[in-house]
TrEMBL record, chains A, B:
Alphabetical keyword list: DNA-binding, Transcription, Transcription regulation
Species per Swiss-Prot/TrEMBL record: Alcanivorax xiamenensis
A Pfam short name: HxlR
Occurrences of domain HTH hxlR-type (ranges): 11-108
InterPro entries (alphabetical): HTH_HxlR (IPR002577), WH-like_DNA-bd_sf (IPR036388), WH_DNA-bd_sf (IPR036390)
Keyword Glycosyltransferase part of the UniProt annotation: no
Protein name: HTH hxlR-type domain-containing protein
Length: 148, 148
DNA sequence: CCAAAATGGTTGCATGATGAAACCGTCCTG
DNA sequence: CAGGACGGTTTCATCATGCAACCATTTTGG
């Protein structure tokens, strides 16, 4: 059986997971944010199998998260770069990173700092219209179409 | 071969993905945030196979994202509830939802609003020390241990 | 200029994960 | 008391993954 598709769930979260919700995709994107662009570099830094990496890069290109551009002068060297859509995943990856650091401890050897000030970045918070932080208990899920 | 584990990658993002990075886990958490607590309800609302749901719920309980509490008076009825760690994934799920709405269009029939004011919530932004919004190009990844 | 290595893959195989359906013991309900 | 709800477990066919080997082209070192 093929993996169940999430497109039909009428849920933006499911739709997002359909594009970047597998074990490797977000790590590839995160690695790209660190500056990695070449196939071999992704492979070595992540320790991912070549066929899987190939599959993931193709899927990320297909869904518009990354683009494949010629790097060599004559043809078979390429670079994989983030598109705007891919770079916009920065928020998602930062949210994941901060959550993991809060609950699993800091297993990372990297620290994100503002490039100009050198200060660490703020914790992400869901905020209301007035800027007040909101937890999941503070929000309501309004139905806009038909009831469940 | 067993799935490659991400624990050894010395990366908080990888560590997070190890806990909630598969196709179903985040959807189960999102469904729990909508108020779902019973096994059958998760199964029907998500359309997930029972054995997979069972496996995911157990893993989420093991990693401290959800808890399993007796609901029936005499024993074999249970409720699965989010822990504080699980509720804290609200930021991650909101980031994913907003990203998907920005780039894939709004496929959702839900709208998140502040429970008290009724206003929609703000877009999440990574911010610097001073509150200025930062893109991935505005940050630096400082190494705190040994070089790569 | 030639040999060797790098690059970006593809293929085959063994094993693990997934989805669908059937089955099962306990509990509640009419 | 019978039937259904609940929360699973088991079986099986198929798909995904990890690993290693292989390959055509391109670049690089001597």
């Amino acid at each position: 059986m093929t993996r169940k598709r999430f497109d039909d769930l009428d849920c933006s979260v499911a739709c997002a997971l359909d594009q970047v919700g597998d074990w490797w995709s977000l790590l590839v994107v995160k690695e790209a944010m660190l500056g990695t662009r070449r196939f071999v570099d992704f492979q070595q830094r992540l320790g991912i199998a070549k066929n899987i990496l190939c599959n993931r890069l193709n899927r990320l290109v297909d869904s518009g998260v990354m683009s494949k551009v010629d790097a060599g002068e004559h043809g078979t060297r390429y670079e994989y770069r983030l598109t705007d859509k891919g770079r916009d995943l920065f928020t998602v990856i930062t949210a994941l990173r901060q959550w993991s650091e809060r609950w699993n401890g800091n297993r990372d050897d990297l620290r994100l700092v503002d490039r100009v000030s050198g200060h660490p970045i703020r914790q992400l918070h869901v905020e209301g219209d007035d800027g007040q932080p909101l937890t999941v208990r503070d929000v309501r899920f309004e139905e806009t179409k038909v009831g469940r």
